[in-house]
Specification:
- The chain is 7% helix and 36% strand.
- By secondary structure, it is mainly beta.
- It has a domain of 251 residues: TolB, C-terminal domain (Neuraminidase), CATH 2.120.10.
Length: 367
C-alpha cells in the first residue's frame, strides 16, 4: 500500500471518529429545565405527623436561604404603574384599595413589597439581605417585620425590625434578640408588639413595647405557642399551641397571658388565626384531608364556616375590611405560591399574582 493511500486512510478514519462523536452528542436527550425548589415548612404549614416541625417557622431558616442579587424593581417612594399592568406581578385583576404589604422571593431572596391603591409593587427592603412577615401598625405609618440577621457561617438568627411605611428608618425593635424571632403583630393602640421566639428553648409568645422596653413572656409553657393576634378592642389575644394535644389547637388569653381558653380543638390542626376588624370573627387555616383551607368562626369557636376549597393549599389569610380575604395559595397545578382575593362567602375568587417558581405570601392590609 502506497504511502499516500495510508495517509488518506488515516484521515478518513479520523473524520469517521469525529462524525460519530457529533452524532452521539446530537442524540443525547435535552437537559431538564430547572425545577422549582422543594417547598419546605416555609410554605406548607407543619403537619401533625411531624411534630418537630412545630418548633420551626413557616419559612426557611437563614441557613437554608441563599443570598441573591436584587433585581431592578421599583424602589421605595416610587409608584409607577397599576399592578395589573406591570408584568410579571399582575393578572389584570384589580387590587383592593388601601395599603397592602407582603413578602416575595421574586427578586431572588425574600423581600417586602408594598402596593398602595393598586399602584406598585414597591420594594421596601432591598437594602437588607432577607426580610419577611410584614405587619402594618394600626395607623399604617410603620411596618414591623422579620429580618434574617444571620452572619455568614454564624448561628441562625432572625430579629424583629421596624421601618417607616415608605421603607425608611429600618431599625431593630430591641437590642439582644437571640435565636429565632418571628411573626410580629401590633397591639390595637400601636404601643406594643407581640412576636414568637425560641430564645428560651421552645417557641413562646412575647410582648414588648415599641421602644424595645418591657419584654414579657406571655405563655411560659413547655409547649410551643405560635401565631398570636390581638383582638381589635385589645381585650384578648388569639394564638395556636400544642400544649394539650401535641398538635396545634386554637386558644385565647388575656393580654397579660392569663385566662387561657381553648376555642378550637386539635381536630382542626389550625394555623395563623386572625381577628376580623370588627372583632366578630376569627379567620384561620385548617388542614382537612390532605390540603389546607381557610375557615372563619365566632370568637367562642362556634359557627365554623369554610371559605376556600380546591386541589391545593390555601393558607396565611388576612382581612380586607370585614367581608373579604386576601390569602396565599399553592394550587396543585401551580409552580409557586401566589396571592388570591375572595369574598367571605367564598364567591368572587380572583388570583392577584402569577409568578412561577416564587412565593408571594404573608399579606397584611390597612385602609
Amino acid at each position: 500500500m502506497s504511502r499516500n493511500r495510508i495517509v488518506l486512510l488515516v484521515i478518513a478514519l479520523v473524520l469517521v471518529v469525529i462524525l460519530l462523536y457529533f452524532l452521539s452528542r446530537t442524540n443525547q436527550p435535552a437537559p431538564e429545565p430547572p425545577q422549582p425548589a422543594e417547598t419546605t415548612a416555609a410554605t406548607t404549614v407543619p403537619t401533625p405527623s411531624t411534630p418537630a416541625a412545630e418548633d420551626s417557622s413557616p419559612l426557611p431558616t437563614p441557613a437554608q436561604q441563599q443570598a441573591s442579587p436584587i433585581s431592578p424593581l421599583t424602589t421605595a417612594g416610587q409608584f409607577e404603574s397599576p399592578l395589573g399592568e406591570a408584568p410579571p406581578w399582575g393578572t389584570g385583576i384589580p387590587w383592593p384599595e388601601g395599603r397592602l404589604v407582603f413578602h416575595s422571593d421574586q427578586a431572588g431572596t425574600f423581600q417586602i413589597f408594598a402596593v398602595v391603591d393598586g399602584q406598585g409593587p414597591v420594594l421596601l427592603t432591598g437594602d437588607l439581605a432577607k426580610s419577611v412577615e410584614p405587619a402594618f401598625s394600626p395607623d399604617g405609618q410603620q411596618i414591623a417585620f422579620t429580618y434574617y440577621a444571620t452572619e455568614p457561617n454564624g448561628p441562625d438568627n432572625t430579629q424583629i425590625y421596624l421601618m417607616n411605611a415608605d421603607g425608611s428608618n429600618k431599625r431593630p425593635l430591641m437590642e439582644g434578640q437571640p435565636n429565632l424571632n418571628w411573626r410580629p403583630v401590633w397591639s390595637p393602640d400601636g404601643q406594643q408588639i407581640l412576636f414568637i421566639s425560641n430564645r428560651d428553648g421552645n417557641f413562646e409568645i412575647y410582648k414588648v413595647n415599641v421602644d424595645g422596653t418591657g419584654l414579657v413572656n406571655l405563655t411560659n409553657s413547655p409547649s410551643n405557642d405560635h401565631d398570636p393576634d390581638w383582638s381589635p378592642d385589645g381585650s384578648k389575644i388569639v394564638f395556636v399551641s400544642d400544649r394539650d394535644y401535641g398538635i396545634r389547637a386554637i386558644y385565647t388569653m388575656n393580654p397579660d397571658g392569663s385566662d387561657v381558653q381553648e376555642i378550637a380543638g386539635p381536630e382542626c390542626l389550625c394555623s395563623y388565626p386572625r381577628w376580623s376588624p370588627d372583632g366578630s370573627q376569627i379567620l384561620y387555616a385548617s388542614k382537612h384531608d390532605t390540603t389546607w383551607d381557610l375557615f372563619v368562626m365566632n370568637p367562642d369557636g362556634s359557627d365554623i364556616r369554610q371559605i376556600t376549597s380546591g386541589s391545593g393549599d390555601n393558607f396565611i389569610g388576612a382581612w380586607i375590611g370585614n367581608d373579604r380575604i386576601i390569602f396565599a395559595a399553592e394550587e396543585a397545578s401551580s409552580v409557586g405560591t401566589d396571592l388570591y382575593l375572595v369574598h367571605l362567602n367564598g364567591n368572587g375568587l380572583a388570583q392577584l399574582t402569577n409568578i412561577p417558581y416564587t412565593e408571594e405570601s404573608f399579606p397584611h392590609w390597612v385602609p
